[in-house]
């Protein structure tokens, strides 16, 4: 009888230990990022100087909590014609108290997203231009120069 109960208790302890180990999010020295939301994946065509924004919210983790160096922003046009090599920029992440996890909100407007890309005319339409479809990616660096993997989303900019 004792042996049966001990086996049950041992099995229960083993299952709880495995579940506890799987549930832990171990932070790594290399920052980790993922996109958790995009406020708008399609930006409308601006008229008379209007500017439209999208906010991309990133969630980060970093074992040392020293993520306040730079955020690399990469744009890649996905249109089939006139594709352009990747264009990137580096943003400085504002200083904030050391923390191992948090969120970064990146506000981008239609001009920032399509800057440097020439318009693609649609043949036979009398001058209509194709919407820019692009992959927007981010890489986060920490103070020691460790870089995260790339987090990406697709955005359509109509201009």
Word description of this protein:
The chain has 159 residues and is an alpha+beta fold. Helices cover 17% and strands 36% of the residues. It has two helices and eight strands, in the order αββββββαββ. It has helices spanning 2-23, 110-114; strands at 32-38, 42-43, 53-61, 70-77, 87-92, 101-109, 132-141, 151-157. Strands 2-8-7-4-5 form a five-stranded mixed beta sheet. The chain has a three-stranded antiparallel beta sheet with strand order 1-3-6. The protein is elongated, with a radius of gyration of 23 Å. It starts with a helix and ends with a strand. The relative contact order is 0.24. The mean pLDDT is 78.
Architecture blueprint of SSEs:
Elements: H1 2-23, E1 32-38, E2 42-43, E3 53-61, E4 70-77, E5 87-92, E6 101-109, H2 110-114, E7 132-141, E8 151-157
Parallel strand pairs: 2-8
Antiparallel strand pairs: 1-3, 3-6, 4-5, 4-7, 7-8
Could you give a quick summary of the protein structure above?
This protein is α+β, with helices and mostly antiparallel strands and 159 residues long. 17% of the residues lie in helices and 36% in strands.
Keywords:
about 160 residues, single chain, three-stranded antiparallel sheet, 8 strands, five-stranded mixed sheet, alpha+beta
SSE ordering: HEEEEEEHEE
Strand order of the largest sheet: 2-8-7-4-5
- Gyration radius over CA: 23 Å
N/C terminus separation? 77 Å
Inertia-based shape: elongated
Structural category: alpha+beta
Largest sheet: 5 strands, mixed
User: Helix proportion of residues, in percent?
Assistant: 10-25%
Low-confidence runs: none
- Quote the beta fraction: 35-45%
The quaternary organization reads as single chain
Total helical elements: 2
Total number of strands = 8
Mean pLDDT: 78
């Amino acid at each position: 009888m004792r042996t049966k109960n001990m086996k049950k208790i041992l099995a229960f302890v083993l299952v709880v230990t495995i579940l506890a180990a799987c549930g832990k999010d171990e932070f790594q020295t290399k920052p980790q990022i993922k996109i958790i939301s995009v406020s708008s994946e399609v930006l409308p065509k601006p008229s008379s100087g209007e500017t439209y924004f999208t906010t991309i919210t990133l969630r980060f983790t970093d074992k040392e909590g020293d993520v306040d160096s730079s955020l690399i922003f990469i744009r890649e046009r996905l249109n089939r014609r006139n594709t352009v090599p990747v264009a990137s920029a580096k943003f400085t992440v504002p200083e904030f108290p050391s923390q191992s996890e948090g969120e970064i909100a990146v506000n981008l407007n239609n001009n920032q997203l399509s800057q440097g890309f020439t318009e693609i005319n649609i043949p036979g339409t009398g001058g209509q231009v194709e919407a820019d479809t692009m992959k927007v990616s981010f890489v986060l660096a920490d103070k020691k120069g460790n870089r995260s993997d790339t987090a990406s989303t697709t955005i359509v900019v109509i201009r």
